[in-house]
Each structure stands twice: as structure tokens, then as C-alpha cells.
Write a structure and sequence with these properties.
Blueprint (H helix, E strand, L loop, with lengths): L9 E3 L24 H15 L3 E5 L6 E3 L2 H13 L7 E4 L2 E4 L5 E6 L3 E7 L5 E6 L1 H6 L1 H10 L12 E5 L12 H10 L4 E3 L5 E3 L1 H9 L6 E4 L13 H4 L5 E6 L6
Parallel strand pairs: 2-4, 2-6, 3-5, 9-12
Antiparallel strand pairs: 1-13, 5-8, 6-13, 7-8, 7-9, 10-11
Length: 258
């Protein structure tokens, strides 16, 4: 388990090893991309064992919805599994930002080109797993996640000093090609997103834009995994492969530091 970027148990998964067959090979963690349910279940079980905790998964909708997770919500997800075939166990609800203060629960942000973001607040013990793509960035997903953390501190203006942030692998600006009009729309609000692709066309660098948003606060640390999902065959990329699995950024809540 890679703990080098947050002071709690956390990791970024990749494609291998795993139980899924092509084109989802092999460690696909999404139950919404057409993979065999038994393969996804095996992969999720392996991840839970690695994290030493039940892992709660989001169903991303490319927005800024915050979903609070506690033990009761996890039990509801298990009950839903019994009655509805389209809801996998441990999938809580539609939303791109999961947050919990309940020790012993891990949260997972799924992605395959969009940016997975993890946060840990040492003061409250809260952890956040967020899925931030172009639409989520424009919808204010990063700000919504930070607002949720700030709400735990009762007006303390120094709350962010306790927060560590990890930004995961995502498609880079040299590979994320977009039309001129879309480039200009995003860059008008997030100038750091502007990029030129390897093909000389307009591109978007969502990780840089997230970094620019984070610059408004002072954090204990901000770490960036610079790998590009499009370029790295060890990662899932929707842009590269169209039909593929999803990797995850995962963080476990361990309670406030004493």
C-alpha cells in the first residue's frame, strides 16, 4: 500500500493484476461499464482486503454532489444489493464527492482519464475521495469538497492547514484534445487548464486547473501523481480505449489524530 502521499492508508490503483477479462482487464473496479459482476466483486474484495476496511464506491455523475458516508449508509447499500440488480454492494449513491468521519471505512473515487482527488483532514479525521473531470471542475467539485471539510471546523479560518491533498493519475494536457470553443469556455474560468496537445491542437490540463483552485488555501501538503492515463498502458483510459475499466483513488478513515 502506498502511504507516501497521505498520512493515512491510501493508494491509487492501476490495471493489474485482477480478475476482469478484456477489454476490462484486469483490476476494473466499476460495476457500470459492462464488466462481469463476479469479476468486479472479486476485484473489490481484493481492494477491501488490501485497505483493511470495507470500501465505499461512488457512481460518478460528473458534477459536484457531496455524499456523506457513515455506517448506516453502508448498511443501506448492502440492503439495496439484495433487492436491486443494478446496484453493486458498497456503491452508495450517485455523486462525485464522498466524505466520511467514520473510522474503519474506506472511500474510492473511480476514474479513467478524469482526475481522482483524495483529502485527509488530520484535525477532524475526515477523508474525502473526489472524481473531478472537466464538467466537475466547472461545476465546482473541488470547492464543494473543501466546503464540506470546512464545515467540520466551526468557523476556524486555519482549517485547511490540517488538510493533506493527493491528486491522482489522469489524462494530461498533451493528450486531452478538445474543440476550440470548449477550450476557451473552460480556460475563461480556469486559465491554468490551457494546454496544447501533442498534435498541436487545443487541450485541457485539468490537474493544473485543480492545482490553481487549491492555491486559494494553505494545506499541510499537496502531492500530484503525474502519470498520464492516455500514455500509461498500466492505467485505464477511456479516451484511448473507449471500452475499458476504471481505476480508483482510495483512502481509509482512521479518525482524528490525538
Amino acid at each position: 500500500m502506498n502511504n507516501s502521499f497521505l498520512p493515512v492508508a491510501a493508494l491509487f490503483t492501476g490495471r493489474y493484476p485482477g480478475a476482469s477479462r478484456a477489454p476490462y482487464d484486469a483490476f476494473n473496479l466499476s460495476d457500470a461499464v459492462g464488466d462481469r459482476p463476479e469479476s468486479v466483486a472479486a476485484n473489490r474484495d481484493a481492494l477491501a482486503q488490501q485497505m483493511g476496511a470495507p470500501v465505499v464506491f461512488m457512481r460518478p455523475e460528473h458534477g459536484a454532489t457531496v455524499v456523506w458516508v457513515d455506517a448506516a449508509a453502508l448498511q443501506d447499500a448492502h440492503r439495496n444489493e439484495i433487492h436491486r440488480d443494478d446496484i453493486h454492494r458498497d456503491t452508495i449513491a450517485q455523486g462525485d464527492i464522498l466524505i466520511t468521519t467514520t473510522p474503519g471505512i474506506a472511500l474510492a473515487a473511480l476514474a479513467a482519464d478524469c482526475v481522482p482527488v483524495l483529502m485527509h483532514d488530520a484535525a477532524s479525521g475526515a477523508v474525502v475521495a473526489a472524481h473531478v473531470g472537466r464538467r466537475g471542475l466547472m461545476a465546482g467539485a473541488v470547492e464543494s469538497a473543501l466546503d464540506a471539510l470546512a464545515g467540520l471546523h466551526d468557523g476556524d479560518t486555519q482549517w485547511s492547514h490540517h488538510v493533506s491533498v493527493a491528486i491522482g493519475p489522469a489524462i494530461c494536457g498533451h493528450c486531452y484534445e478538445v474543440p476550440d470553443s470548449l477550450h476557451d469556455q473552460v480556460v475563461a474560468r480556469h486559465p491554468a487548464a490551457s494546454a496544447i496537445t501533442q498534435w498541436g491542437s487545443p487541450g485541457l490540463d485539468i490537474r493544473s486547473a485543480i492545482g490553481q483552485v487549491l492555491d486559494r488555501w494553505t494545506f499541510a501538503s499537496v502531492v500530484v501523481d503525474e502519470r498520464c492515463t492516455y500514455e500509461d498502458a498500466g492505467l485505464f483510459s477511456f479516451r484511448r480505449d473507449q471500452t475499458c475499466g476504471r481505476q480508483a483513488a482510495v483512502v481509509r478513515c482512521e479518525g482524528p489524530r490525538q
